[in-house]
Each structure stands twice: as structure tokens, then as C-alpha cells.
Amino acid sequence: MNPSAEIFIVTADSETSTAFATVFARVGFQATVFTDGTFLVRSARTRTPACVLLDICMLGSSGRDILTLLEAADYPAPVLVLRDESDISGMIDAIRKGAFDFVDKRLDADTIATRVREAIDRWEHRRNIDYMFDIALPSLPGYELLTTREREVLFQITAAASVEETGIKLGISPRTVAVHRRRIIQKLGAGNSATLIRAVLTKLRSAQA
Predict the structure, then answer these.
(1) Residue 129 covered by a domain
(2) Most C-beta atoms within 10 A of its C-beta, which of 12, 18, 106, 150?
(3) Residue 135 has pLDDT above 80, yes or no
(4) How many other C-beta atoms are found inside a 10 Å radius of the C-beta of residue 102?
């Protein structure tokens, strides 16, 4: 089975886990259910699912303990917490311990499946952006020659922002963006913007292969 199609569900509620397993199967996922946090952590160390859906109110090891044991902030998949809106302090603590997002327990199973899919897509997008900013761009030949502002403009360009959008985001005029873009292309020896973007995308794809 492709691990990217697997979802780890951690809940002590058998009725909830059965409903989730059924609805996730309909949208192309296989749900692996854990009723004990210890077993979840063991499995999560040997294979990586598309996401972990964690009921914060677990018997034995609490959901917060599981977040700590998983090292959720650095885990290579998003950890989503089934939330009870009455437990505000629990939600804040879960975010501090690395939870990526919350899913409201009161929603029906189909809506929860949709929210989970959306969260996975957002997490993947953020991971790509982080990689591009931290690794792909700095590894381009000539990157060290760029000024701080030029690096900011380069990031916007490779994130597919237009000149106008880049200007708005950085608080500079489109004409200034165009000037920075010309200097970036010259320093990196890219020839044009299209060549520059292709170089970054090639690095992204090679990292994901």
C-alpha cells in the first residue's frame, strides 16, 4: 500500500473510528486505527502516513503526551487534533506541542474527511515553500551575491507571484520589482525568469523523488 494513502487515527471511541474508516475509504485513504498512543508512536516511527488524526482525549497516554512522543512539530506528516471547543487550554497546548491544525469533533464524518484532505494539501504546500526558501533557492549558483531584498523578490517570483503581487507583498513598486528581477537574473546567470523558475522547480522535484 502507498503510505501516502494511509491515515493514522488515534481514538478510544470505536464508533468514531469505524465511521472514519468507512468515509476515508470512499475518498481514497485507508484508515489505520489505534486505540493506544504507545502503539501509534511505534508504528509512526517505522512508516509515515499522509497524516495523523489524533483525539486529544485518550485513555492512558494523553493526546498531549502523544504529540510530545511523536515530536509532532518535526514529524514528516501533519498531525491533526480532533478538538473539543470547550477545551481552549488543551488546543493552545496542542499547537505548542506541534499540532498542525484542529478538526472539530462535532462535524459529520464526510466533512471531517474533507477538512483532513484540505489540511494535508496545505501541509504539502507549506513544506514545498519551506524547502524552496531554505534549500532550493540558497543552493542556486550565485545566490550568495543577492541582497536581502533581491532574495525576497526571488522567493516571490519562484512562488509564481506576478510583478504586481510581489510589489504589494513587499511594499515596493512594480517598477522596483522589475529592476530587482533584472539584477537577480544577471547575478544568477539565468537568462530570463522562465529559466530561473525551471531551475528551482527541478530542485524541488529532485528532493521529492
Answers:
(1) no
(2) 150
(3) no
(4) 18
Paired sense of beta strands 101-104 and 30-34, if any: unpaired
Regarding whether 110 and 183 lie in a shared domain, the answer is: no
The amino acid present at 14, given as its one-letter code, is: S
Say yes or no to pLDDT of 79 above 90. Answer: yes
Q: Which three cell numbers stand for residue 25?
A: 475509504
Contacts of 139 (CB under 8 A, 6+ apart): 203
User: Which DSSP letter does residue 77 get?
Assistant: S
Q: Give dist(CA 180, CA 186) in Å, integer.
A: 10
Three-state DSSP class for 109? helix
CATH code, domain carrying 115: 3.40.50.2300
**Residue at a domain's end among 97, 124, 151:** 124
Question: Cα(54)–Cα(58) distance, rounded to whole angstroms?
Answer: 9
* Same-domain status, 110 and 152: no
Whether the pTM exceeds 0.90: the reply is: no
Q: Which range of residues forms the domain containing residue 173?
A: 137-208
β pairing state of 6-10 and 101-104: unpaired
Q: Do residues 87 and 150 both lie within one domain?
A: no
* Predicted confidence (pLDDT) per residue in 100-131, tens digit: 888 887 888 888 888 899 989 888 877 777 77
